[in-house]
Amino acid sequence: MTLLSEQPGTRFPGPDHSTAPAPAEWRGHARDEVRLLVARPDGVVHTQFRAIADHLGRGDLLVVNDSATEARELDATLVGRGLIVLHLAQRLRDHDWAVELRTAPDARRAVLDAAQGDVVKTGGLRLTLTAPYPEASSPTGRGNRLWRATVTGDVAAEIRSHARPIAYGYLDRRYPLAAYQSVFGVRPGSAEMPSAGRPFTSELVTTLVARGIQIAPVTLHTGVSSQEAGEAPMPEWFEVTPTTARIVRESKLAGGRVVAVGTTVTRALESAVVRRGRRGSTVRAARGWTDRVVTPQHPPAVVDGLVTGWHDPHASHLLLVEAVAGRALTQHAYDEAVAAGYLWHEFGDSALLLP
User: What is the pLDDT of residues 60-76, one digit of tens each?
Assistant: First the structure.
């Protein structure tokens, strides 16, 4: 478990009673009918997501994540201990995975007292915990949430036959994998949905392009987002293609804003930044594993705005939001969202932050 030296400055009540219990479609709305809070230094606007084009300008660039979500949650047994829920967070190499152990039956809490050498079994897999991931220590003294595990068995076959989308105890029931996909998701690889892109529809994308707002993809295959308070996000695989890097550079030169659709996109873009001394920074094509953590102490170099959902207090994602939007604007946006009853988490409402 890697701890952050920074803590979010934004303060607000925990969203225990304002979490979206179901996708918008199961609540009687279209995807792009979730609420959208637009926050600028000159004020806040409350609207629907489908009106996002009204708050962007010709020449602005939306960068989206084209990673698709995979089913990565399995019922399992921690040998000698009993039933658990297993999250397959990241494939590390042929037989090694980063995994998370959660309490059964609904993955509500992390299992923090597993130990090296413990064995986890599912219907067709046997996993041996070999080391904490990504570090070989537990700075909190509370145990390790993520483990490197050696896996015996056919992971792909087990996923096809028995896995379901990763979900936590705040949902009212299980939802199909299709509910966890965005219109941009074409490259399978994410353990959890890159949820900021979920409210976009094909019709909305057409409207944006028709108004001169560009859209370009990056890839970041997400791990699990259930960090303990103060815990840094895990390393994740990303790619910024030469075409997207060129579009970002050209947009910046033309005076357009680069608006990241999600914390995952921000992380990917900022992992592709090249420093050019006095000439500032630019984005180049890049791919591989990133451990970049965007915070106010380590701010973004190319991202000018952010489309995002609403994050829990103390979450590392909230530090990224503060780094992009500034703490004052972030605090104002969260105060407004809490007062107006916005819905939290992956099926909740959205924000467009334009510092």
Answer: 999 999 999 999 999 99
